[in-house]
Amino acid sequence: MTRMTLPALPEESFQRVLCVVAHPDDMEYGASAAVARWTARGIEVAYLLLTRGEAGMPNAPEETARLRVAEQRAACAVVGVDDLTVLDHPDGVLIYGLDLRRDICRAIRRFKPDVVLGTGYEVETPFGFDQADHRAAGLATLDAVRDAGNRWVFPEQVDEGLEPHSARWYVVPGLPGFASHGVDVTGDPLLRGIASLDAHAAYLAALPGHPAPADFIPKLTAMNGKAMGVEHAVLFRAHDLQAPPEFFTEAMQD
């Protein structure tokens, strides 16, 4: 029996990608290697961080926030991201709601991405129970993608000159068996992805027993690569928001 390999994301059609995550370092556990490939191909990528990560280290919160944002700027530079926005929602107790949706919607209308990269919103993942901020961020981002295209949702932004915008793709990092597409990151993109996580040196040093990025990121991407038929890959669950639902497509064919 022939195993089907995952197709590549249609990145040849991408011009702008907006990545929305809860904390400094969230992009660097694999997804940043895909970003490195995209920026090398001339795709414009922006990051929106919803918190400053101030609850993630034993240091005083303000000190931690300054440190983690600085490390995130360094991580962005490694993979060619110049556009970094860091909001001031509270780390550790991020609240899903209209305030969060409004801020993400504003970023989408400002940047006008073809692709929004979000995070999962499931309670349980293959790695265990997900952190609460990640779930809130993932669900708020999913809703904000739709909000951004509706001029009657947060209309004050339209009055300010931020026109409605509907992204084509919504993608979330995935794993074999839970992904629909992949990005080949073999070679330089993988090396830059590893280096981007290395840029969070102080944060990683504060996590007891955290493995070196060079020890586990290649193992993860190699596992993903098998699903795509390449040496190293980052996988995604990708949704084409402008495609007709499969149900209607199948109904039309019957």
Would you summarize the structure shown here?
The chain is an alpha/beta fold and 254 residues long.
Q: Could you please describe the fold and organization of this structure?
A:
This protein has 254 residues and is α/β, with parallel strands linked by helices. The chain has helices at residues 31-40, 61-78, 98-111, 132-148, 155-159, 188-198, 201-205, 213-228, 246-253, and strands at 16-21, 44-51, 83-89, 115-117, 124-125, 128-129, 169-174, 181-184, 233-240. It has nine helices and nine strands. A seven-stranded mixed beta sheet has the order 3-2-1-4-7-9-8, with helices on both faces. It has a two-stranded antiparallel sheet with strand order 5-6. The two termini are 29 Å apart.
List its salient traits.
alpha/beta, 254 residues, 7-stranded mixed sheet, 9 helices, two-stranded antiparallel sheet
